[in-house]
Amino acid sequence: MQARELGIPDAYEFLPDSFPDDRGLFVAPFQEPAFTKAVGHPLDVAQTNHSVSRRGVIRGIHFADTPPGQAKYLYCARGAVLDVVVDVRVGSPTFGRHEALRLDATDYRAVYLSEGLGHAFLALTEDAVTAYLCSTPYNPAAEHGINPLDPALDLPWPADAEPVLSAKDAAAPTLDEAAAHGLLPRYEACRARYEQLRTHHG
Hints:
There is one protein chain. The protein is of the alpha+beta class. The protein has a single domain, classed as Jelly Rolls, CATH 2.60.120.10. It is 16% helix and 36% strand. It has helices at residues 32-39, 167-170, 175-180, 187-201; strands spanning 2-5, 11-15, 18-21, 24-27, 47-53, 58-64, 72-78, 80-86, 98-104, 110-113, 118-123, 128-134, 143-145. The model has no long low-confidence stretch (mean pLDDT 97).
């Protein structure tokens, strides 16, 4: 499995080997040894999520209060999505920047975003299936959102896909509004959380 850190610190891309034959295909989208080598600690999995989205659906931008935060490791199990990581950590050297990756059921590329990072994706195909490994259980009181159509973020959503948002995501604040209301994680707190995880598992 190949791994690399993205241009946003503490976000990673993983590319597994796949093994097609006359029966179909086998692939291991998550491999703990490769993950631990890249990130510096194992992934604690408290919950798995499975989403099915029709073409044009945008889910996100979501993030959780940190600590403890919620790290996510995800891949596309059917179809294709445009996955976007947004740095919403106040004080981060890449605050407000994003990285976009195509995740699909061809190469089973995966993305990992550490606690405190924002995440969204747009379904590029009908019935796109996305699988997530989450480090903490869903806690609605600690989860927040940024509007994925915030013009200041200028996310690279394809022009030929009419965006479909939940009412909650459509009503979410812009990044500037979330910052003004003190909703965003602080970079120092996130970094302390990452170091705590590395020390705990070291």
